[in-house]
């Protein structure tokens, strides 16, 4: 029997206590259709995000565990990968790197088996989140550069921008190398113009990056203006 980390034992017991307090907008049954189960999973995803905003990560894990089992039941690999990703990031927020790594590894293996570039890139970004937590900044940067290269091939605008901003942030805030950061900030803006559907997601990130760059390069007037 695999040893359960103390944090996982705590989470499982806490999740059980929270379960009685959760209300579902609708229920599913053994006769539910794939469409109904998919709608239920998406409803749980929204509830998970609401719990994260409140800092209730055990609640979020419970919703995502439910989604994981349901995604397996209906054979939806995308929803399965998303559920694992959400669980991994919940564990990461709880400083349980071992469990986070476990779920990310499963997504990497599934992406490799399916030869799915989009799924692989999503998993690599999750893995990069572990590297930044472990202060492995160079590994974090290199992995995000891999994501950028793959995202260019698939025209995945969202991850092109995400990975570029990740690299910029590491250079800017962790390594204090503003000139390298500027290259990736500018690249992210180019990608954002190329894929305008992503604009609303990254406005705050661009604002913060520009302000931090201006401050680090001594342009205090611009930093203050931002």
Topology, please?
Layout (H helix, E strand, L loop, with lengths): L5 H14 L14 H20 L3 H18 L2 H17 L3 H18 L2 H17 L3 H18 L2 H18 L3 H17 L4 H18 L3 H6 L1
Helix pairs in contact: 1-3, 2-3, 3-4, 4-5, 4-6, 5-6, 6-7, 7-8, 8-9, 8-10, 9-10
The radius of gyration over CA amounts to 19 Å
Order of helices and strands: HHHHHHHHHHH
Shape: elongated
Q: Helical percent range?
A: over 70%
Head-to-tail CA distance between termini: 55 Å
Largest sheet: none
Tally of individual helices: 11
Give a count of the beta strands, DSSP E runs of length 2 or more.
0
By secondary-structure content and strand pairing, the structural class works out as mainly alpha
Average pLDDT figure: 86
Q: Please report which band the strand proportion falls in: under 5%, 5-15%, 15-25%, 25-35%, 35-45% or over 45%.
A: under 5%
Could you list the spans in which at least 5 consecutive residues all have pLDDT below 50? 1-24
